[in-house]
TrEMBL record:
PANTHER family: MULTIDRUG TRANSPORTER EMRE (PTHR30561:SF1), SMR FAMILY PROTON-DEPENDENT DRUG EFFLUX TRANSPORTER SUGE (PTHR30561). Keywords: Cell membrane, Membrane, Transmembrane, Transmembrane helix, Transport. It is a multi-pass membrane protein. SUPFAM superfamilies: Multidrug resistance efflux transporter EmrE. The keyword Metal-binding does not apply. Signal peptide: none annotated. It is found in: Cell membrane. It comes from Methyloceanibacter methanicus. The chain crosses the membrane at residues 7-24, 36-54, 61-82, 88-107. This is Multidrug transporter.
Amino acid sequence: MSTLKPYLYLAVAIVFEVIGTSALKESDGFTRLGPSIVTALAYAVSFGALALTLKTIPVGLAYAIWSGVGIVLIATIGWIRFRQTLDTPAIVGLVLIVAGVVVINAFSKSLPH
């Protein structure tokens, strides 16, 4: 597997996790059928892509990147789409998550390069 492929799978996993989580919010506790179906399908695609990622990238690092980027994207979508507030501690925490993902990708010898 080329070194780019696992990152492509990871990007797909992140995008579909964000779609699934956004739809989960819209599902209103699984009481709305359309968003509930989108949630299930998006999470299925996300976990499938994450499983392909794990063939190459160690589970701890892949999960750190997947969850970290997902958290930042969902927080941003929550702020923009759902008008949820982000106070200073939340923003600082999100910046630290981004910094952690950057450090992993820039310096970890465990990732395929």
